[in-house]
Write a structure and sequence with these properties.
Number of strands: 31
Structural class: mainly beta
Oligomer: single chain
């Protein structure tokens, strides 16, 4: 990234990558991508044995960021090829947005559309600083149908300023406006108890099961002030929250704490994720928490220092992830890609090449392709110091 003037092709990629049916890869950059330098969406297209950046789609202009700025959570795609995402800044009140990118017939130009601007309700009751979106069918690999609701969370805002979970409902026939509805206010059951009866400030999106229930984490509050795993169950005209697990329930927080990575649901309905230094598996059916691996906790360790990104699972059940720090290569131990199969294995330690041209600080979950290769991004490093997209081959 940043290989052209003014970093017009973006810099500092972050968030999950998306691969479309034609094999193109889409992702988000927090900076560059236009005169405003406030990030956007990039597209990479395969060209034989290499890749080329087809375009960088800026959300901002020199006049401002009405569609959002600094997107950090990746994008999703509908069956028509439109892209949807969230931005942590910009919009009417600089509190973030949900946006849609609509391509022309040749997919060479994209038009941005604002679906929701956060903090538009009094007291930011609709939330502030959104995380990633999800929808029915996403966990099975289906594209978004464009007609059912999108769901997400915000880090702040809501009735107790502990963040919200929300639904974004597409327009009715003949209408053009999307409707945002708060389906849960975090920290709301009794905000005078320091939120011990709920979680607060979620920093990850949610996962939906086949029955329409939503699962997620909140990194703050909870019974032990270590965060929670929650479930939101749809009722007739509302949603009911269930607290499935309070982190730091084990001595010395051996079960982890402060989860900020999205959850992965396996075929048996188990929830897998990372909470601080712990890779865990939680069974909602059995209410059982299992620590699969605990990182050493020092950024200089070979195994890295935890993870802030979701896990990736292959058909054999092996898990893959990345750590921002660790690995033993300077500067500042530049990060690790790793596997649990089931034991821990370093796949790659970043900054092995002079000037960190192989990347520094991995900044996305790993995308598994059909041949077993793993694709991800780094926040910095690369040929121009502004991050890269890399592929790990078995």
């Amino acid at each position: 990234f940043c290989g052209v003037a003014n970093c017009a092709n973006g810099e500092s990629p972050e968030g999950a990558l998306l691969r479309d049916p034609e094999g193109n890869i889409f992702g988000t950059v927090a900076g560059g991508a236009g005169l405003a330098g406030a990030g956007g969406v990039f597209e990479l297209s395969p060209n034989g044995d290499s890749w080329s950046e087809t375009q960088a789609i800026a959300l901002c202009t020199a006049d401002g960021c009405p569609f959002g700025g600094s997107p950090e959570s990746g994008v999703i795609m509908d069956a028509q090829g439109d892209l949807y995402g969230t931005a942590t800044a910009g919009g009417n009140d600089n509190a973030g947005t949900v946006f849609e990118l609509i391509p022309n017939s040749s997919r060479t130009k994209w038009k941005a559309k604002l679906l929701h601007s956060f903090c538009s309700a009094a007291g930011c009751a609709d939330g502030w600083v959104p995380n990633a979106l999800t929808y029915a069918g996403q966990s099975s690999g289906a594209l978004y149908d464009g007609a059912s609701p999108l769901y997400g969370t915000t880090f702040a805002g809501g009735s107790a300023n502990g963040g919200v979970a929300f639904a974004l409902i597409p327009p009715q026939p003949g209408k053009t406006k999307w409707k945002q509805k708060v389906i849960h206010n975090f920290c709301s059951p009794n905000s005078t108890d320091n939120c011990t009866s709920d979680g607060a400030t979620p920093q990850a999106g949610m996962t939906m099961d086949g029955s329409g229930n939503l699962y997620g984490t909140a990194q703050g509050a909870g019974l032990n002030h270590g965060g929670i795993i929650f479930e939101l169950v749809p009722k007739a005209n509302s949603w009911k929250e269930k607290i499935l697990y309070n982190f730091c329930s084990q001595p010395s927080c051996a079960d982890g704490g402060g989860p900020i990575a999205p959850l992965l649901m396996d075929a048996d309905g188990n929830l897998l994720g990372v909470a601080g230094l712990v890779v865990f598996k939680f069974s909602p059916r059995k209410a059982k928490m299992t620590a699969l691996y605990t990182f050493c906790g020092d950024g200089t360790c070979d195994d890295g220092e935890g993870s802030t990104f979701s896990l990736t699972m292959d058909p054999s059940g092996n898990l893959f992830g990345t750590s921002w720090f660790g690995g033993g290569h300077t500067p500042q131990d530049a990060g690790v890609a790793w596997a649990l199969d089931p034991g821990f294995q370093d796949l790659y330690k970043f900054c092995q090449i002079t000037s960190c041209k192989d990347g520094w600080n991995p900044s996305s979950p790993l995308l598994l392709d059909g041949t077993g290769n793993l694709i991800g991004t780094t926040w910095q490093g690369g040929a121009h110091g502004a991050g890269n997209v890399y592929e790990l081959t078995p």
